[in-house]
């Protein structure tokens, strides 16, 4: 099978395991354990994705999660390859994440799984606040949703049929 452009992109993606959960199913024969894993992948240059996988063994679940994350990779709008264009919130379930652009040298001020998503997206200066629920999976997904909501001045100008200078 020939390598396509997408295959070469996937090879450059870094992976980070956000959470591993043990799920127990109780039957008359006893307890059956399975594992669920959530993984964030990104190239630190604007591409990031989240995926989950479930299996009977942890490594297998992680492998499935990586495959799912590679399928869900999206492009994130960056300004100067370091921060986001504007403030945004993302919401999944009861988890809400507020993202604010920051000046150069601020660093990634975020906690937990939001930090993992932002770092793998290639954002170097940002302030993030997790509001509501702290469920790792939902916070990671809410962070990604907030990043997807970003609009660059070029994009807005194109939507309005104007030049960037006119805005």
Provide keyphrases for this structure.
167 residues; alpha+beta; Double Stranded RNA Binding Domain; Ribosomal Protein S5, domain 2; 2 domains; four-stranded antiparallel β-sheet; four-stranded mixed β-sheet; 8 strands; elongated; disordered N terminus
- Count of individual beta strands: 8
The chain-level structural class is: alpha+beta
Separation, N- and C-terminal Cα atoms: 47 Å
CATH class membership of the largest domain: Alpha Beta
Number of helix segments? 5
What is the 3D form? elongated
Quick structural summary:
The protein is of the alpha+beta class and 167 residues long. Helix content is 31%, strand content 35%. It is built from five helices and eight strands.
Q: Overview of this structure, please?
A:
- Strand 2 and strand 3 (47-55) form a beta hairpin.
- With 167 residues, the chain is α+β, with helices and mostly antiparallel strands.
- It is built from five helices and eight strands; from the N terminus they run αβββαββββαβαα.
- It has a four-stranded antiparallel beta sheet. Strands 5-6-8-7 form a four-stranded mixed beta sheet.
- The longest helix has 14 residues, at 58-71.
- It has helices spanning 5-11, 58-71, 112-121, 136-148, 153-160, and strands at residues 14-27, 30-42, 47-55, 74-75, 88-92, 95-101, 108-109, 126-132.
- Mean pLDDT is 89; it is low at 1-5.
- The chain folds into two domains: 5-74, Double Stranded RNA Binding Domain, CATH 3.30.160.20; 76-155, 2-Layer Sandwich (Ribosomal Protein S5, domain 2), CATH 3.30.230.10.
């Amino acid at each position: 099978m020939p390598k396509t452009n997408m295959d070469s992109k996937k090879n450059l993606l870094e992976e980070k395991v956000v959470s591993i959960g043990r799920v127990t199913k109780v039957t008359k024969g006893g307890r059956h354990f399975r594992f669920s894993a959530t993984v964030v992948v990104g190239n630190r240059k604007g591409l990031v994705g989240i995926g989950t996988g479930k299996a009977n063994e942890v490594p297998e679940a992680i492998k499935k999660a990586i495959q799912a994350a590679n399928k869900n990779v999206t492009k994130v709008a960056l300004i100067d390859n370091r921060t986001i264009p504007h403030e945004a919130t993302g919401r999944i379930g009861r988890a809400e994440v507020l993202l604010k652009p920051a000046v150069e040298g601020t660093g990634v001020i975020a906690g937990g799984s939001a930090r993992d998503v932002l770092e793998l997206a290639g954002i170097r200066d940002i302030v993030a606040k997790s509001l509501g629920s702290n469920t790792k999976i939902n916070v990671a997904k809410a962070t990604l949703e907030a990043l997807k909501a970003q609009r660059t001045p070029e994009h807005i100008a194109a939507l309005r049929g104007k030049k960037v200078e006119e805005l």
